[in-house]
Design a protein that fits this description.
The complex is a heterodimer of chains A (245) and B (455).
Chain A lengths: L3 E12 L2 E13 L4 E5 L6 H8 L7 E6 L2 E2 L5 H11 E4 L11 H11 L4 H14 L15 H13 L5 E5 L7 H16 L3 E6 L2 H4 L4 E6 L2 E3 L2 H6 L16
Helix pairs in contact in A: 3-4, 3-5, 4-5, 5-6
Chain B lengths: L2 H14 L1 H39 L4 E6 L18 H10 L3 E10 L6 E3 L2 E3 L3 E5 L3 H4 L4 E4 L4 H6 L3 E4 L1 H8 L2 H4 L9 E4 L2 E9 L5 H16 L19 H6 L1 E5 H7 L16 E6 L5 H15 L6 E5 H44 L1 H9 L4 H37 L10 H27 L3 H6 L2
Parallel strand pairs in B: 5-10, 7-9
Antiparallel strand pairs in B: 1-11, 1-12, 2-5, 2-11, 3-4, 3-8, 6-9, 7-10, 8-9
Helix pairs in contact in B: 1-14, 2-12, 2-14, 2-15, 3-11, 12-14, 12-15, 14-15
Classes of the chains: A alpha/beta (245), B alpha+beta (455).
Chain lengths: 245, 455
């Protein structure tokens, strides 16, 4: 059984009498250990897909399960619990809380799970070590560079040992060199066996990931691999996985 | 998410906006401190009033006062006899529900000087009385004796004085270093010699007694050296119920009449009117029938002219109670309003701070915060601001009470009690909850995606 199973997911918005089908019957399996990129132009529905995959939003119709749990009929409270325990998020704008220091930011998901402060400290230090920022634990986010902030955000996504990590344009707000370092971090995590889904509009980033999904007009476009086959990635990552033919 | 963590995150945010929080808190601080301080002032006044009440006589004391004749008897005004000893005798004979009756004939204390060897004493009253006055005005003779029937019969020139008069004419025990009992000494009252046959006990308020003890202790520690006047010096406070009680000069009623009133009216005609008739009744439950009896008797002696009225202590006490209750209500309303304003301030700030933090709230939700957790976080923050304000306000109220104490005389000095403090803190907590409710609901109801995308 796949880690994530989506069956005929539809999401419909009503905007001033007009009905918009953001997702129009998406069926998708994500296996544990996959490193998948979701690409597509803006307005294609890729963000909506990620929100539904990330349990931030519920689909209008269709069924979905994550780690064997049915999501499509979960209450907001249950969704919050699933987000806290099974999912890690990395955002384009880092979304760190400015009033908390780095360690407290990383601890945040654990706080909402009611984990004791001692084990929170251990886990957050461990996560910070994974991204190489353990010496910045007492700093404020504002005292860090953009790349460091994003690595703190990755540590926060890792701290609850999630089943799947979602990254929404994680390099979108960084220069290309720093972005490369962030992508390297993701590749490293992938090699350690983590499941990662990366939303991007940049085909060159998508070319780095073994699995790719293109969304167009709320549907999965099937010819994505063929389209990207000829693309040479400008990113030369150490130990990056070979793109599938 | 447990409560401790919610408090932690909430307090973190308060700390991040120290100055803003301080300003927000100020409404609550003022509300709490004014509530506690006002309650303390009122408690102090209440205590002072009660003490004076007791000093003036018991609850069952009723005064018969002069009163203007009613309008329909206006043509009889010149015939109104006023209160005379005749009334007293008639009441004694015909009103069995009256157990004690005490007539008083007060001399004009401005015209009648009390002197001894060139020293003169200011008195609260110089008055001719019957022995019943002891029971009526709750006096106790500490030294010597009170008047007997022979003193009354022969209009003897004897007097019983309060300790205040003794202090002024013979020196107080604090000054002399020993108890001064001037029995048998002669003093001049209105130029006529009177023998002191007795002296009353010293009366003082609780507070006065403590101050005195403290002064005594300090004086003992201060051994040797030049004797200086320090600490308690028998502070004389005009108008104070205890001062009045200690500064009386009593003489037999008949003496007052024969030696002063018989020829000392403004136009040098005799003035036999009494200045006061106090009665006590058998039982407070029988107040109405007793008053009716007294009224009937007095209407006969006054030829039907209604130139008197009955003034019960109960009326006065009720009066005081009503006044205290009114003060309580008004201070409660004022303090409540300022707490309310403080609450509105908190709500305003909470709403503003939530609008600033919408994206943060979205982030928290994305990493697993449930709506309940966000709700708790915001409401805890609001309560924490309110409670912090309440605690600061409590501290502030002590300061305020100190200030009031400096500004006002010691007689009714404010007393801080726990009860208004509890009410103030409890009400602040409530204000915090109510003020936080709407912002917390708003924050909890945010959709994670909309919150994350909020610009």
């Amino acid at each position: 059984m796949a880690l994530v199973e989506l069956r005929e997911i539809r999401k419909t918005y009503h905007l001033g009498g007009e009905t918009i089908h953001a997702l129009d019957g998406v069926t998708l399996d994500v296996q544990a250990g996959d490193f998948t990129s979701i690409i597509g132009p803006s307005g294609s529905g890729k963000s909506t897909l990620m929100h539904i995959l990330g349990c931030l939003d519920s689909p209008t119709s269709g069924s979905m399960s994550l780690d064997g749990v049915n999501i499509h009929d979960a209450t907001p409270r249950e969704l919050a619990k699933i987000r806290g325990e099974k999912i890690g998020f990395v955002f384009q704008f880092f979304n760190l809380l400015p009033k908390l220091n780095v360690a407290q930011n990383v601890e945040l998901p654990l706080i909402y799970q009611g984990i004791s402060s001692r084990s929170r400290k251990e886990k957050s230090m461990h996560a910070l070590k994974l991204v190489g920022l353990e010496d910045r634990a007492k700093h404020r986010p504002s005292q860090l560079s953009g790349g460091q902030q994003q690595r703190v955000a990755i540590a926060r996504a890792l701290v609850n040992d999630p089943r799947i990590i979602f990254a929404d344009e994680p390099t979108g707000n960084l220069d290309s060199h720093t972005g490369e370092m962030i992508l390297e971090t993701f590749c490293k995590l992938h090699q350690e066996g983590r499941t990662i889904m990366l939303v991007t509009h940049d085909p060159e980033i998508a070319a780095l990931t073994p699995q790719k999904i293109e969304i167009r007009d709320g549907k999965i476009a099937l010819d994505v691999d063929a389209k990207l086959a000829g693309k040479e990635s400008r990113f030369k990552l150490r130990g990056s996985p070979e793109p599938n033919p | 998410m447990n409560l401790l963590n919610a408090i932690f995150i909430g307090l973190k945010d308060i700390w991040a906006h120290k100055f803003r929080t301080l300003l927000t808190m100020f409404g609550i601080v003022l509300g709490v401190s004014s509530l506690v301080a006002m309650a303390a002032v009122i408690t102090g006044m209440e205590k002072g009033m009660k003490e004076s009440m007791i000093a003036m006589g018991g609850l069952d004391k009723i005064r018969i006062d002069d009163e203007d004749v009613p309008a329909w008897q206006d043509h009889l005004k010149t015939q109104a006899p006023g209160r005379l000893i005749r009334d007293v005798e008639a009441l004694q004979a015909s009103a069995p529900l009256i157990t004690t009756i005490s007539p008083e004939m007060r001399l004009d204390w401005r015209a009648t000087r009390v002197t001894r060897q060139g020293k003169s004493a200011s008195t609260s009253e110089i008055v001719g009385v019957w022995p019943a006055v002891l029971e009526m005005n709750l006096y106790e003779v500490a030294h010597g004796r009170f008047f007997c029937d022979l003193d009354e019969e022969f209009a003897n020139s004897v007097c019983v004085i309060g300790t205040g008069v003794r202090d002024q004419l013979f020196g107080s025990p604090e000054e002399e270093g020993q108890e001064v009992v001037p029995l048998g000494q002669i003093i001049q009252i209105g130029g006529q010699p009177f023998t002191i046959v007795g002296m009353f006990k010293h009366y003082e308020s609780e507070q006065e007694r403590k101050l005195k003890e403290l002064a005594k202790k300090q004086a003992q520690e201060d051994s040797g050296g030049v004797k200086r006047q320090r600490g308690w010096s028998g502070a004389k406070k005009w108008g104070d119920a205890f001062w009045r009680k200690n500064n009386v000069v009593y003489m037999p009623l008949n003496t007052a009449w024969i030696k002063f009133r018989a020829a000392s009216n403004d136009d040098l005609t005799p003035d036999p009117r009494l200045t006061d008739i106090d009665i006590k009744i058998a039982d407070l439950d029988l107040l109405e029938p007793a008053l009716q009896q007294a009224r009937n008797v007095m209407l006969v002696t006054h030829n039907g002219i209604n130139d008197f009225e009955f003034d019960t202590q109960e009326n006065q006490i009720n009066d005081i109670r009503t006044r205290i209750r009114n003060m309580r209500i008004s201070q409660g309303v004022i303090a409540g309003l300022s707490l309310l304003v403080g609450g509105i301030g908190i709500m305003n700030i909470m709403l503003a701070s939530i609008n600033e933090r919408i994206r943060e709230i979205g982030t928290c939700k994305a990493v697993g915060a449930s709506s309940e957790a966000i709700f708790t976080q915001i409401i805890v923050e609001s309560i924490a601001v309110a409670m912090l304000g309440a605690v600061v306000g409590l501290g502030f109220s002590f300061l305020l009470v100190e200030l009031i104490e400096i500004a006002s005389p010691a007689q009714n000095s404010p007393i801080i009690t726990a009860y208004p403090m509890l009410i103030a803190v409890g009400f602040s907590g409530l204000v915090g909850v109510v003020a936080g409710l709407f912002p917390a609901l708003k924050a909890a109801g945010l959709h994670p995606i909309q919150a994350l995308r909020y610009e």
